[in-house]
């Protein structure tokens, strides 16, 4: 898989991809992540990429030319399966969306900033508009990092068997059950006996029951209740 992220704040994306599972996936050659600095496509030597809103009002809007130049360059190089714009008015990111995106080959993610991007970019290039939740962030970068992480961990070979994404919360519409490690006793709280029993079928049944109970208590909507 290849992911191209177009942003005017590339530094915001350095750390999320330089550690842990997403780093491992890149090191193994399972994903290539390329971050493109919008300012490299600025309209003048002052590095201008944004402008005032037509019609008046506070805030700046990202201009069409820098974004179009960057996207045209990428689209001329290869076919993309999705050109995503991260925005609070997009479809809310949920596990099934991440699952679907993990099957794609080439993805572009465009990060908005300030008041957003000129609407004509959305109509000319964008195939998917995605929000990571009902709140407004300062830009799309954290959304792109979240979406990338959610997709990359699903790519075959990224996670080992023992940490398989199939046991993640949400994969079966259930939250994950509680987990424990040593010590078995801590400040009067002990690990449930069943987890120390070595009886795998019983442990599995317990985990399923706990997952159901937790989902019923915290997210009954996932069970359609
Ligand atoms: N940009 C600003 N807010 C956002 C959100 N909630 N999701 C994705 N991108 C955003």
Topology:
Elements: E1 2-7, H1 20-27, E2 32-37, E3 50-52, E4 60-62, H2 64-77, E5 82-92, H3 95-101, E6 106-111, H4 119-125, E7 128-131, H5 141-152, E8 185-186, E9 189-190, H6 200-218
The structure holds adenine (ADE).
Adenine is lined by residues 86-88, 112, 131-133, 135-137, 139-140, 143.
Short structural description:
The chain is an alpha/beta fold and 225 residues long.
Account of the protein in words:
The protein has 2 domains: 2-152, SPOUT methyltransferase, trefoil knot domain (Alpha/beta knot, 3-Layer(aba) Sandwich), CATH 3.40.1280.10; 167-223, Orthogonal Bundle (Trp Operon Repressor, Chain A). Helix content is 30%, strand content 19%. The protein contains 6 helices and 9 strands. The protein has a 5-stranded parallel β-sheet. A two-stranded antiparallel ribbon has the order 3-4. The mean pLDDT is 96. The chain binds adenine. Adenine binds at residues 86-88, 112, 131-133, 135-137, 139-140, 143.
Instruction: Return the CATH class of the largest domain.
Output: Alpha Beta
**Major sheet: arrangement of strands:** 2-1-6-5-7
Bound molecules: adenine
Instruction: Tell me what portion of residues adopts beta-strand conformation.
Output: 15-25%
Mean pLDDT: 96
Structural classification: alpha/beta
CATH superfamily descriptor of the largest domain: SPOUT methyltransferase, trefoil knot domain
Compute the number of helices: 6
Instruction: Let me know the largest β-sheet.
Output: 5 strands, parallel
Helical amount: 25-40%
What's the CATH architecture name of the largest domain? 3-Layer(aba) Sandwich
Number of strands: 9
H-E string: EHEEEHEHEHEHEEH
CATH topology of the largest domain: Alpha/beta knot
Could you tell me how far the N terminus lies from the C terminus, measured between alpha carbons in angstroms?
37 Å
- The coarse overall form would be elongated
Rg from Cα: 22 Å
Work out the count of structural domains.
Answer: 2
Q: Unreliable segments (pLDDT under 50, ≥5 consecutive)?
A: none
């Amino acid at each position: 898989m290849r992911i191209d992220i177009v942003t005017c704040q590339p530094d915001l994306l350095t750390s999320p991809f330089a550690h842990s599972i997403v780093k491992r996936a890149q090191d193994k050659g399972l994903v290539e992540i390329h971050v493109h600095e919008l300012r490299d496509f600025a309209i003048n030597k002052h590095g201008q990429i944004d402008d005032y809103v037509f019609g008046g009002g506070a805030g700046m809007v990202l201009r069409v030319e820098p974004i179009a130049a960057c996207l045209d360059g990428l689209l001329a190089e290869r076919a993309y399966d999705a050109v995503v714009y991260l925005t609070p008015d997009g479809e809310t990111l949920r596990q099934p969306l991440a699952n679907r995106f993990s099957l794609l080959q080439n993805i572009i993610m465009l990060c908005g900033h300030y008041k957003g991007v000129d609407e004509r970019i959305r109509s000319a290039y964008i195939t998917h508009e995605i929000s990571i939740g009902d709140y407004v962030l300062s830009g799309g970068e954290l959304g792109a990092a979240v979406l990338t992480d959610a997709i990359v961990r699903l790519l075959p070979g990224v996670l080992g068997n023992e940490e398989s994404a199939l046991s993640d919360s949400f994969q079966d519409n259930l939250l994950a059950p509680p987990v424990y490690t040593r010590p078995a006793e801590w400040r009067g709280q002990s690990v449930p006996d069943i987890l120390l029993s070595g009886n795998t079928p019983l442990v599995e049944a317990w985990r399923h029951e706990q997952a159901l109970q937790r989902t019923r208590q915290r997210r009954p909507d996932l069970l359609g209740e």
